Amino acid sequence: MKTVKEIEGKKSVQLIKEVVRVKQTVVERPVEYNTMITSTTIAKQIGIEEIGDEAQEVLLLVALNTKNKINAIHKVFSGSLNSSMAHPREIFRSALLNNAARILIYHNHPSGDTEPSIEDYELTDRFFAAGELLGIEVLDHIIVAGNDAISFRENTL
Length: 157
Prior knowledge:
Elements: H1 4-9, H2 40-51, E1 58-64, E2 70-78, H3 88-97, E3 102-108, H4 118-134, E4 137-145, E5 148-151
Parallel strand pairs: 3-4
Antiparallel strand pairs: 1-2, 1-3, 4-5
């Protein structure tokens, strides 16, 4: 068995990286939504206000506590004019860091059309599966286009 000095002497030391700390920067803003999310109508309105007028696709996470009050609102990803390549790991990293019991996921369609694409359906399935695995309930995935929004849950999509 070689000692550390023997390995270092031959300059064949291999290093691995270890995550020591995950840092989250908190930006406070005035409480705009001082209510529980009790309906799809309220949930849709939050999405419209937050990302309805974005020029490119944005994926938004609303982290909720056990009483459906908002813990955090986080723009997880900004994409191009017509695509957002967000992965469930980014969504759930934010959910875990914000102690979410439940989440609402939103993304916008800058085209103004709320009709879900095939990719939207596939991504929604992945979100729900990941949430079930992690024990974080995905209440809904909502597509926002301007002042309009469609709920996957409400429309059983």
